[in-house]
Amino acid sequence: MSKPESFPRLLVATEFPPNASGGGPAVVRQMLRDWPADQLYWWSCLPETTTTFGQKTAGQAVAAIPAKLYPHQRWCEQKSWVLENIWTHVATRQLRSTLRAVQPDVIWVIPHGWSIPPLARVLPGARIPWHVTFQDYMDIDSYAVRYGVARSRRLSAAADRLYAEATTRDATSHPMIADLLQRTGAPAAQMLHAGIEKEDLAWLEAGLAGKPDCLRIAHAGSIQLESVFALFVAALQKIRARLPVPVTLEFFGNHSYRSRSWFDATWMNERGNLPTAQLTAALRECAWGFSPMALTDEDPRYNRLSFPTKFISYLAAGLPVITLGHPESSVVKMAKAYDVGVCITSADVDKISAQLAPALADAQPQKTYIEEIRRCARTEFDAVRMRRILYDGLRQSAAGANPSDPAA
Predict the structure, then answer these.
(1) What is the pTM of this model?
(2) Is a pLDDT exceeding 70 seen at residue 41?
(3) Largest Cα–Cα distance of the chain, in whole Å?
(4) Beta partners for 346?
(5) What is the DSSP string of 304-326?
(6) Angle at 291 between CA 288 and CA 292, to 5 degrees
(7) Residue 363 Cα distances to 211, 212, 243, 352, angstroms
(8) What is the spatial distance between Cα 75 and Cα 390, in angstroms, rounded to a whole number?
(9) Cα–Cα distance measured from residue 126 to residue 317, given in angstroms and rounded to the nearest whole number
């Protein structure tokens, strides 16, 4: 690891606080693992509500959005208007004040949600280099419904400008990097997503788990499309009785699904939201991981360009993956590039059952797929390599060099 003095003063600027739940914040924390806390500052629009994940900083500033004003379900159009036309001015002044107080050498921008308007107003004139990590597009259907189509497009355009004008940049999937290059002309340094740490890579190389006495299928994180999940449950119901060992579904995450019509407590278990190390240990007790996306292409900017963190969590635990989604989705393309499990693109419950049955009858699925799990983990998700590329770019930016310049 580099000497502490080689770390410039870094300000992370985004919507979420340091210890927020969810895949995006988890990626940022993982990439900051070796960054000294006394050189790390944070600016966000949402306040810290927990320290569960242990992310420490030298200072935090919050341009707080009142909880009742955040557009979730009710009065979304009106709340979004207030945020865009009134709150943004307040947040802009607060961000400028934060930059004067912290005097960062470099800023790491994750353009998410309502952090985008103040960041887009302040950074181009701030004379401080910044790095952008794109995790989601703001004009996907879920944001368009909450914020309005025109407003979500304005947020997306502002985020694109932050990306294009950054000193260095990266994004969450290979298709997203290609799309951003085509639209902005700006290249990315790498695909930056959840990574697999060297100790987990070493664990994958060391050996295999034994023959499971129960076929536990894990689902990590929130369920984005419950209709797809319900289809998977229906397909499992058709074959459960014919499988050689009992089947359970294990849910890991913040949300509870016990009230859903498809939930059956006799063979489904909710395990809660676990820190990364505990989650990996719990996943290693399972036989498979389940990674679904939409089976239609109605929201292509999400389905084709975003990438589910759960897929990587399963690889880190050595689990073969059941991938279910549209043929053009990012996760299906990854599952087809690496034979890490069973990949299903049908929306027909009988066809899904027919593909699942032989795969789930495998007594030792990890043994069947381990070589491709290892290859995918090393090639696509090496956390040490991701951190090195990110840190090198931040250091070069802080030093005034242009990392895209061969002389840098």
Answers:
(1) 0.85
(2) yes
(3) 66
(4) none
(5) TT---HHHHHHHHTT--EEEES-
(6) 135
(7) 7, 7, 10, 20
(8) 39
(9) 43
